[in-house]
Amino acid sequence: MKNTKNSKNSLRSFLLLWVSQSISAMGTAMTDYALVVWIYGQNGTATSVSLLTLCSFAPTILFRFIAGAVADRWNKKYIMLAADLFAACGTLGILLLHFFGALTILPLYIITFALSLMNALQVPAAYVATSLLIPRDQYARAGGLQAVSGAVQSILSPALGAAVLAWGGLSAVLCVDLVTFAIAFVTLVFLRIPQPRQEAKEAKESLLQNCLTGLRYLKAHTHMLYLILFIAAVNLLAKLGADGQMAAFVLSRSGNHQPALGAVQMCVSLGVIAGGLLMTAAKPVKDRGRAVVVMCCFIFLNGIGLAVSRSVIGWCLFAFLQYGCAAIMNVHWETFMRTQVPEQLLGRVYSTRDTIQNCTIPLGLFLGGWLADNVFEPIVAEGTKLRGLLPLFGDGQGMGIALLFLLVGIAGLVLSMVCLLKCIYRANEGEAEQI
Fold this sequence. Notes:
The protein has helices at residues 4-43, 46-73, 76-99, 105-133, 139-190, 200-204, 207-220, 222-240, 242-253, 258-281, 288-308, 312-340, 346-358, 361-379, 385-388, 399-428. By secondary structure, it is mainly α.
């Protein structure tokens, strides 16, 4: 047990780490926005932008499994410092290439891929470091603060990035990113992050054996493994639906009205902020696992409301509620992991969890677009029999995507209700651990 003084010092250290890392993340997000604009300006294709996203996303999934073992074996602070320094070198490299007129798309892809590799190492280390700094009774509040900062970044980074880009070009945005890095780096240098005690047996194991520890832990704790598999299914459905196809849904239903999309996206971010703020003030929930499933029920219920709405106001309302529930669910999920997993195993179990639950995201993104364009839109096209049988969606473009959203919402709600009933059944049976 930490004494009161140590708890206050740890919480103060977390707040310093959170603020400095949030500032750095804002600079990185501004750079990401500026690079997308720059790449699109080079050849004007969506494929070039998609490849940049793939370069930044793929290593996170592929190497997170190994990164968790590294985070548990090595000093968390040093891993974060090394990753930050490497990221700064990457940004500096892009800046120099751009300054000398040598920046092209291919080296940008290579640098982005390399930076994503370091990010795959940094995230588990930062997750464990945060867990070590926060008193156990403050896990939910800390998760709420992190959710709020992420949402604020999503709102402000495009606006700030566009403003700086218009003022000083890509070089100015990259310089701002380097300044925000320096703030985070210097803050981290002076922070003291405790290190969990490592078992002698684990210290002697090879890196490969350490990597498998997360799988062995989940195999021995099936309630957690089942919940991870449930979240993987939720991620698949979410990417099939609003989380992956929101822009296509709003633009098609509104007749390509871009202000409508902007309003909905703003409400998405406001929903995340509201959910995060609520969790900073809410009392701790005893059964976090069940809370995760309950919030998933509300997520898909609001997804159904989004599908059948025909106005911008309706889309904004249900997007706000859906993503507010998603933020609350994520905070409960992170808190559940931090309270259930021993500190010395947290990096490996966290990385194994992320690898499993996120592996369905690329499939969901691909299938969502393909199903919308090649299955659902054609079957409700003008003149088809099914179109007249769907008065719920009104008329016009986007009926197929709305139908897809409805089916995804129903499937997700049924899945969540089944899992919730399983939770209740296990609780009534008196089992100590609940899904």
